[in-house]
Amino acid sequence: MNRLEEISASVVAHRSELADAEFRAAWRAWLEEHCDVQMLRPARRLAGAPLKAWLRKLNVHGWRAPGWPREHGGMGLSFAKQLIYREELERLGVTRWLDLGETLLGPMLMRHGTQEQKATLLPRILDCSDFWCQGYSEPNAGSDLASLRTTAVRDGDDFIVNGQKIWTTFVQDATHIFTLVRTGRYERRQQGISFLLIDIETPGITRRGIRNIAGDSEFGEVFFDDVRVPSSQLLGTLDEGWTIAKSLLEFERTSIGSPFLADLALKMLNSLAERCGIADDPVFAARMKGFASELDVARLLYADLCGRFVAGEKLDSEFSMMKLVSTELFQRTAEYAVEVLTPYQAGHHDQPTRVLFEELNHLYLISRPVTIFGGTSEVQRDIISRSLLAV
Ligand SMILES: Cc1cc2nc3c(=O)[nH]c(=O)nc-3n(C[C@H](O)[C@H](O)[C@H](O)COP(=O)(O)OP(=O)(O)OC[C@H]3O[C@@H](n4cnc5c(N)ncnc54)[C@H](O)[C@@H]3O)c2cc1C
């Protein structure tokens, strides 16, 4: 560890030991100082170079990886402080970001990685030398992930990988991909799958972007054509990657289950309704009360389940419930907002109202896929009903 890293580590240690109110004040002050106007667009999500620059800035200033333990270079925050960390971002309206290395792969490396994998890969996630994307879905293996067909065949000290992944978020920005591949024979389809870590610049890999409904190319396809991957890049045990795959999905549903976007949609709806003069309409006001009470339920559920998850409780269908409640509420709120407000859009030409409409329209577009990624709503209902009916 060099001198700068030592100083940064001691500041992080200090922050985790602050009283909650002091921690909140320190984080708030830092955000207010470092977020320029481009960083205050909560309906947007950072991507590309600005995303990496922001993550590096958080790292240098000791605000990176709030949930990671201190021994791995994270902030080691208690659950209460992690909620405060999030609350302050939401209060200020900071542009959202996603780093799958931090939120999904990091915890799996800590649980299943070799000493060498942890020592090399975790610091490279923190300083953004490596930026990871998730290669799970394939053209015929989405909800039914176990039917994946990308293969990795052992050849000396390497695996030779062939196949295709799709809907890979941030594939154009990524330096690496963590992926599920078929490595062995199986009786049950969940067997014979391994979890492989692959440098995306390896010869034989081709990436192709897919443009989404909002006009962004945030996801894409990845083709593997005789790609040679060292066997040291295997995470966990050969043929038993399904266990890692499943526990990673729990982390994914925890972050997707946040009611933040539903809250944002409701705030925008409120604010625009006032500007358009419909806030006092009794029918509108009744709908708003309905959304507000559903949001309260989503918030309570989220705080309760995340707290139990962090405390080590074994949860399963509860994640599905949380994902379902938050994402469907977000989608319905955004849909209603566009339905009632669009007729007023043309009549408002002042700059702040125009910007708000622009942001709302964007929010509506990004609300469409939330009931698909991380497991579709139908699949979540399946999981919940199986658990309730014990079938
Ligand atoms: C914005 C976005 C980002 C994504 N990012 C990534 C990523 O980074 N990495 C990655 O690996 N994947 C990613 N995905 C893929 C995502 O995980 C899949 O789209 C999702 O799992 C659904 O799979 P599918 O698209 O193959 O649909 P299918 O599984 O083919 O489903 C089609 C329809 O059938 C329904 N259905 C399927 N099975 C059942 C069932 N058993 N019971 C009832 N209904 C069912 C589904 O609900 C859906 O309506 C992303 C998707 C989106 C939209």
Automatic annotation (TrEMBL):
<dbReference type="Pfam" id="PF02771">
    <property type="entry name" value="Acyl-CoA_dh_N"/>
</dbReference>
<feature type="domain" description="Acyl-CoA oxidase/dehydrogenase middle">
    <location>
        <begin position="133"/>
        <end position="227"/>
    </location>
</feature>
<dbReference type="Pfam" id="PF02770">
    <property type="entry name" value="Acyl-CoA_dh_M"/>
</dbReference>
<keyword id="KW-0560">Oxidoreductase</keyword>
<dbReference type="InterPro" id="IPR046373">
    <property type="entry name" value="Acyl-CoA_Oxase/DH_mid-dom_sf"/>
</dbReference>
<protein>
    <submittedName>
        <fullName>Acyl-CoA dehydrogenase family protein</fullName>
    </submittedName>
</protein>
<keyword id="KW-0274">FAD</keyword>
<comment type="similarity">
    <text>Belongs to the acyl-CoA dehydrogenase family.</text>
</comment>
<feature type="domain" description="Acyl-CoA dehydrogenase/oxidase C-terminal">
    <location>
        <begin position="239"/>
        <end position="389"/>
    </location>
</feature>
<dbReference type="InterPro" id="IPR052161">
    <property type="entry name" value="Mycobact_Acyl-CoA_DH"/>
</dbReference>
<feature type="domain" description="Acyl-CoA dehydrogenase/oxidase N-terminal">
    <location>
        <begin position="22"/>
        <end position="127"/>
    </location>
</feature>
<dbReference type="InterPro" id="IPR009075">
    <property type="entry name" value="AcylCo_DH/oxidase_C"/>
</dbReference>
<dbReference type="InterPro" id="IPR037069">
    <property type="entry name" value="AcylCoA_DH/ox_N_sf"/>
</dbReference>
<keyword id="KW-0285">Flavoprotein</keyword>
<dbReference type="InterPro" id="IPR006091">
    <property type="entry name" value="Acyl-CoA_Oxase/DH_mid-dom"/>
</dbReference>
<dbReference type="Pfam" id="PF00441">
    <property type="entry name" value="Acyl-CoA_dh_1"/>
</dbReference>
<dbReference type="InterPro" id="IPR013786">
    <property type="entry name" value="AcylCoA_DH/ox_N"/>
</dbReference>
<dbReference type="InterPro" id="IPR009100">
    <property type="entry name" value="AcylCoA_DH/oxidase_NM_dom_sf"/>
</dbReference>
<dbReference type="InterPro" id="IPR036250">
    <property type="entry name" value="AcylCo_DH-like_C"/>
</dbReference>
